[in-house]
Amino acid sequence: MSLSSGLTIDCSSQKCSGGVAKLYLANKDDVDSITYTTDDNSTATAITMVAAAVFYEFEFADFTAVFNEDAPAENCNYAITQTFDGIFPCHKQSVRDIIQQLQDGSCCGFVGIVETLSGVKWLWGDLDKRRIKLLNSPTTTGAAIADQNQVTFNFQCQTTKLAVEYSGAVPV
């Protein structure tokens, strides 16, 4: 694919403030198919799930969740690293159980959707063999009484494809 257009800034529509509203994750094997407008590098418009499977919704403490893509080029190839980090307050048994499920599920991996605070949704981890995995989940009790007792979720996907915008409803 060669360059076919440029970018201009539209001063009337600059509502693109940072921040993540939600992260949705589905087990890789629960996603039956993904519909794209033209090819898998274009906007995804629908996701069909296997049987009664769904995406699971994750919320994080305000101003702690971030999605990043790093796409360095080498020899005309791109090794893209996508990361998602977010803090969930009040570590307890139910959170520990989710961590265990995420650790167990990381062997096969997940497909994810990041919904930004500006309402844009990004689909990632949708390439075969290039799924999202829980990289780490450090927990802390804090030291002082005012410290937050929390868990930080670190997800990663190493892929050859940038996330694509997702315009459909999230199957939850």
Percent of residues in beta strands = 35-45%
SS summary, helix count: 1
- Please tell me the total number of domains: 1
Q: What does the overall shape look like? A: globular
Biggest β-sheet: count, sense, barrel?
5 strands, antiparallel
Question: What does this 3D model show about the protein?
Answer:
This protein is mostly beta strands. The chain has one helix at residues 93-105, and strands spanning 20-27, 31-36, 44-49, 56-58, 66-70, 73-74, 77-78, 80-89, 110-116, 121-124, 133-136, 139-140, 150-159, 164-165. It has one domain (20-165). The protein is built from one helix and 14 strands; from the N terminus they run ββββββββαββββββ. The strands form four sheets. A five-stranded antiparallel β-sheet has the order 4-1-9-10-14, with no helix packed on it. Strands 5, 8, 11, 12 and 13 form a five-stranded antiparallel β-sheet that branches. A two-stranded antiparallel sheet has the order 2-3. β2 (31-36) and β3 form a beta hairpin. The longest helix has 13 residues, at 93-105. The N and C termini lie far apart (35 Å). The model has no long low-confidence stretch (mean pLDDT 92).
Q: What are the key terms here?
A:
mainly beta; 5-stranded antiparallel beta sheet; 172 residues
Outline of the structure:
By secondary structure, the chain is mainly beta. Helices cover 8% and strands 41% of the residues.
What topology does this entry show?
Blueprint: E1 20-27, E2 31-36, E3 44-49, E4 56-58, E5 66-70, E6 73-74, E7 77-78, E8 80-89, H1 93-105, E9 110-116, E10 121-124, E11 133-136, E12 139-140, E13 150-159, E14 164-165
